[in-house]
């Protein structure tokens, strides 16, 4: 019996930036329904890793597979399979929130009734109705984060990649974000949540991977022992020591 392939697979991925290794020999897999917390201090290589997974950066070496297919050979996979919220979500300041959603839906291949339904359901889910006529250029940072998340969710991606998604969100919005993440995983999507905050990882993730200086130092399921994870994270961050998974 052939086992199903993971939704995401990174095999010995490397990427240099400004002549220095940003990600070094990273191998990682992610299955459907999993919520992976990608944890690390600032500069650990998290954003570079996510940008490669999303197709915004090309690895110098190694292979990335989405749904069993080589991303380098089939770059259009991202259009249908992947939703990405970068750390600083890009926006067109002259477009309204509604125009943003419609434009992103078209970029994802949605048309006519499918586009309208996707926008309406996402607006309701993320409570964007009061902002629809507002220009993106005058939104607060927290409102831009919500808009970016909405654009990432429009096409119901199988893999949701979130880079510091709780930036500038108030406590109510953070709780709503966690609810959305759990709903996506319950529906069968895989989620990667990148953060440098341990509390964000333990609040919503079922597995944690720790990067340090571009290398994977720890990868294990969360078992509820948050004190042990905190100790592991501190040891890696301070001393760069690999920890047994």
TrEMBL record:
<feature type="domain" description="ABC transporter">
    <location>
        <begin position="8"/>
        <end position="238"/>
    </location>
</feature>
<protein>
    <submittedName>
        <fullName>ABC-2 type transport system ATP-binding protein</fullName>
    </submittedName>
</protein>
<dbReference type="GO" id="GO:0016887">
    <property type="term" value="F:ATP hydrolysis activity"/>
</dbReference>
<keyword id="KW-0813">Transport</keyword>
<comment type="similarity">
    <text>Belongs to the ABC transporter superfamily.</text>
</comment>
<keyword id="KW-0547">Nucleotide-binding</keyword>
<dbReference type="GO" id="GO:0005524">
    <property type="term" value="F:ATP binding"/>
</dbReference>
<dbReference type="InterPro" id="IPR027417">
    <property type="entry name" value="P-loop_NTPase"/>
</dbReference>
<keyword id="KW-0067">ATP-binding</keyword>
<dbReference type="InterPro" id="IPR003439">
    <property type="entry name" value="ABC_transporter-like_ATP-bd"/>
</dbReference>
<dbReference type="InterPro" id="IPR003593">
    <property type="entry name" value="AAA+_ATPase"/>
</dbReference>
<dbReference type="Pfam" id="PF00005">
    <property type="entry name" value="ABC_tran"/>
</dbReference>
<dbReference type="InterPro" id="IPR017871">
    <property type="entry name" value="ABC_transporter-like_CS"/>
</dbReference>
